[in-house]
Structure prediction request, 760 residues.
Amino acid sequence: MAQKGMSRRDFLKTVGMTGIGLAAAGLSGCATPQAPAATPTAAGPTKTEELKLLLISHFVAGYDDWIKKFAMEWGEANGVRVTVDFINNLDVSARGAAEVAAQKGHDIVQWDQAVSSPFLWKNHTVDLSELVAEVESEYGEFSAVGKQAGYDATTGTWFSLPIFYMAFPALYRKDLWDEIGIEPDTWDDVLEGGRKLKEMGNPIGIPISHGSDGNVNWRGLIWSFGGAIQDEEQNVVINSPEVVEAVKFARALYKEAMTEEVLAWDDTGNNRFIASGKGSWIINPISAYRSTQNSDPELADKIFVWKPPQGPKARLMGVTPHSWTIWKFAENQVNAMEFMRHFVANYRVCFETSGGYNFPMNPGWLPQPMPILSNDPTSNPPDKLAVLQTAPEWSVAFGYPGPSSPAIGEVVSTYIIPDMIAQAATDQLTPEEAVAWAEEQIKRIFQKWQT
Amino acid sequence: MTATAQRRGSPRLSYLLDRTEVLGPMLMAPAILYMVVLLGFPFLLAIYFSLTDVTINNIQLGFSFVGVKNFAALFRDAIFRQALRNTLIFAISSQLLAMILGQTTALVLMRNFRGKTLVRVLILLPWAVPIALGVLGWKWMFDSLYSIINWTLRALHILGPGQWPQWLGTPTLAMISIIVVHAWKSFPFIAVIIMGAIGAIPQDIIDAAKVDGAGFWRQTFQINLPIVAPIVSVGVIFGTVFAFTDMSVVWLLTKGGPINSTHVLGSYAFQVGIVSGDIGQGAAISLFLVPILMLAMVLTLRAMRRREL
Prediction:
């Protein structure tokens, strides 16, 4: 029987999406739902004269101006009117909810998986498998981090195009560590040296707070001790002797080598800590070093870069993967794909403009020796950042050793790992109890997303 | 064109506009429409969502009715219980503090002194500036490394060597911080309402009190407060409801940390429903206080009406 008008389910879906849009717009204060867009025709998306990008504001000064100009120039060359909007990484989820609700908005949206996982939105994004295959045939396979950031193993499709990640090396005050005669290469070195440096008034710092850095850093410690949140089959395995040992070590690090301030840091806390001259060691993208170069070049000369510490089982550290998605309802899908191709083909400029900050998700985009990192004229010595070229060896994404998933995304966004460390470090719970607490929280989330 | 000429031009319209039963609903219509579309509809939708397993992921694929499962799950969630406790503490404490500050400010501003206009403008600023801007300033004042509050306390020798409170890093101090910031944001509103109410007290009552020898305290507590109470109650209701539902101060200052010790229901609902994409659960969290708030509002409004009578 032919269906007349709108079914009850369709009606609820429509009003539901509008309602979420209103809620998200109200909460984020930045988005207003608009009228639904026409869906793509059965013949597929058609070429249009517009392209709208929603990009995350970059930490590095000048990068936003560059990418806007880059997109505009591409638009002019191709007869496409380009709009580039910038947004704080924390606001992308709310904006995404509003756009999905309105079925209208930007064509390309950038995601920072340290705060919001595009995995959650995979049912609303275009399958980019063809584009990825094309990129891989030209440049080789995406890195493991890239695959975790964009590939959905359950459907065998790419829901986003991984573009770059921010590697988290150790940044340390070489003058101070030389003074105590220790090189911070292993976690034991960091504890031993940190203890001495704290006595000298120069503690180390890892955020134990609600922010991306804490989420990334403490996962690195857990992996280095042989622990993990989930295994390859997505079973929750956090309650293990390895994780308990890692938490005990974190507690010792906090008590013996850090000060209480790490409990209060947001994502700029450790940057300011090292830039103040007080901090002696942090794990952070090189933005902390770059900003110190601007504010205090003399101090920046004393800050050196090394791999994240080697643990009893491994040397691993988390990253913050960034990727681009195209909405299924996007009106300019053809242009969006073409712009993605153009971006990949010019990745070197992106990397250089970011000051060596945006690590390529595909090693083929930027073969070694990498510009800037292998020879940075602003650094003293110029090869100070060369060790960063080893980042693919020790960088993994949040779900490691399993895939990313909505559940992993929620574990990240609810800061369970930093909270687990905080409770043990401040003696609210024993390390064993803290791990059991985290297991309960994580299992509840996994269970929720499985049903 | 004069009113007479207008009436001549459209006698029927003029007749209708003169009738209160027509003009009243016409003037009320935009407000009612606004409430239905932007408040009533999302509210009903939130109730519907809270009874389903809808997430960002499945919203277009279809979702199922799950009854009160989302609400039942909340009671097993320790973070929710903490957020509920925090909401009560946050709302009540910040309102009390805002009331004290508002009342004091109003009494000061009722007096004449040089620069009064400037002081009035400055005091209204916290209420007038965008919340994000205000909170950014507080964030710097609470900074772990450069806190001006700590520097001042140290300069006054209140903090000794090695003492450096982490306002946003320890649960109790973080809770105090968000309460103080919310009270700072709210008190000008209460001060303005109290000033308006006190200004409306008939002068003969004040004069009679003075003649009878009533001092400051007696005049404040036995004359001013009872008279202004119904008006101030409206401000308190608004402020309380706002405090119970606000999430901006918490989200901008602590994001619920440390260890979820400052999450309120609003921030937790946002985190679960929007950031984590579990819309059904998020809706259940955000709706949790509605019955209690509605009951409190009905009781307060009823009490006010009795006083007026």
About this structure: The first strand of chain A starts at residue 50 and ends at 56. Chain A has two domains: 10-165+320-365, 170-318+414-450. Residues 8-28 of chain A form the longest helix (21 residues). Chain A touches chain B through 58 residues (CB under 8 Å).
